[in-house]
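Can anyone check this?
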Amino acid sequence: MCNTCNVPVCTSCVAGKHNGHKFSKMVDAIAQLRGENETQIHDKTNEANQNITKIEDNLKLFDNDVESVIKAITDQGNMIKSMVDKSVAQMIALVKEQSKKEKDKLTKILSAAKSTLVAGQNLDKRRRDLDKTRPDETMVQQINKMKEDINKLDIDSLPQFPKISFHSKAVTEDDIRHLIGSYTLR
């Protein structure tokens, strides 16, 4: 075997163009090639095993990182939901409180208007009853007294009636995503 050219040679080649090349026996050359192949295979399989181990370890780390990111997103989402629920509850409580104050004002005004109506109806009944009596000096006094009572009857002007409305803000999915945060995947 020609060690320089790494090819099998015959005895006639030794005398010819392979002049000056080193030769070894075929058995020795095969043993050497087998050893080199075995070493290279061993090195490659070791490297492949190391790569597999690194890939598996990194897959586990990546899975853990993914779970951590999912948990962080979920926690952030739950916190934002809780904040939204709290804000909604506070807004509703404030609307109820303020609307109750407005309704109480209107209820007092309504009660006063009903009292005025009853007083007016009572005066009208007195007037009709007075019309049925005989005209005399007492009647004149009662009519004048009724006139004073009518003048005391105060009709309140109507208040500015409260109005309530809600103006929602446009919220997109991107707005929500920006509230939650972001992640990077490299």
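Reply from J.R.: I decoded it. DSSP finds four helices and no strands in the chain.
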